[in-house]
Design goal:
heterodimer; A: mainly alpha; Arc Repressor Mutant, subunit A; 8 helices; elongated; B: mainly alpha; about 80% helix
Chain lengths: ~210, ~80
């Protein structure tokens, strides 16, 4: 699962090589290519504008300083995402110095998945809302997830990293990525159901 | 026979298409016969699709400007070093 098509990846290898050789314009091009994604990622994880901007800057400054250590085995984007995730998690931990932001939570028992509400969605629920309203609904749903679920969901389903890349970026196991991702997806599905369900249908309990 | 709980447990990998064929077919059969699981599958897939389709918003111009200034400064400093 790649978010960058092969042709683009080929161009990018050359671009990264030029940046590594000290070509400032090449590095600037990489910054401009990925700044929006890194900023979005930083905002999703830190949930704070100021922290997100710090993370954005730190990510690219660190990337520049450590370009010589970028082995070229992973994609440049995956590499900077890993830097950004580390920076963002540090911010998050600093802001909430309690243990709730630890990514090493005990294994979930899966109990939360036992009861859920079921309702069919409208054919085209997105059409009921303006772009801005829809963004608010989607953002607040993601932001309501706990950090350990939220980071996995953001990396896998928004930034479209692979399961392995996500595990590597977060320093957790592949099974942990899979189980957190499923829980995050199910919780979001449930939150969105409140907005998108077909009117007139009863919501009923499941299992 | 697969239960709804079995289906839910495998839902993530089912949606990602990473299961072996035998299990996949069993789950497919279950979901075609169970309206509740069908709704969960359908709405979960649509949830993912909505998020994947989101384009990142443009960065506020002042944030972009400060980023580029910080990057330029860093590049300049490295040239002097």
């Amino acid at each position: 699962m790649t978010s960058v098509p092969p042709a683009d990846l080929f161009d990018e290898t050359a671009l990264v090589e030029r940046a590594r050789a000290g070509d400032a314009a090449a590095f600037t091009e990489l910054v401009e290519k990925y700044e929006r994604k890194i900023y979005r990622l930083a905002k999703h994880i830190t949930q704070n504008d100021e922290d997100a901007e710090d993370v954005l800057q730190e990510t690219f400054l660190k990337a520049f300083s450590h370009l010589d250590t970028f082995a070229g085995q992973s994609k440049f984007y995956t590499w900077i995402v890993r830097i950004a995730v580390n920076e963002a998690l540090m911010k998050l931990r600093k802001r909430k110095s309690d243990r709730t932001v630890s990514l090493d939570e005990p294994q979930d028992t899966g109990e939360e998945t036992v009861t859920r509400e079921i309702a069919v969605w409208d054919e085209d629920p997105e059409q009921k809302y303006s772009q801005e309203e829809l963004r608010d609904i989607l953002d607040s749903a993601v932001n309501s997830l706990k950090p350990s679920f939220r980071t996995v969901f953001v990396l896998r389903d928004i930034e479209e990293l692979s399961t392995e890349e996500t595990a590597e970026a977060l320093g957790i196991s592949v099974p942990a990525v899979k189980s957190r991702l499923l829980r995050a997806r199910l919780q979001l599905r449930e939150k969105l159901t409140r907005f998108f369900r077909r009117k007139g249908d009863d919501v009923f309990a499941y299992m | 026979m697969l239960t709804c709980k079995d289906f839910l447990n495998e839902l993530g990998e089912f949606m990602d298409g990473t299961l072996d064929q035998e299990l996949r077919e069993k789950l497919q059969k279950h979901v075609s016969e169970c309206p509740n699981c069908w709704v969960v599958l359908d709405t979960s897939q649509r949830t993912i699709k909505i998020y994947k389709g989101l384009e990142p918003q443009t960065i506020p111009p002042d944030i972009h400007a400060r980023l580029m200034a910080a990057v330029s400064k860093k590049i300049e400093a490295s040239k002097k070093a």
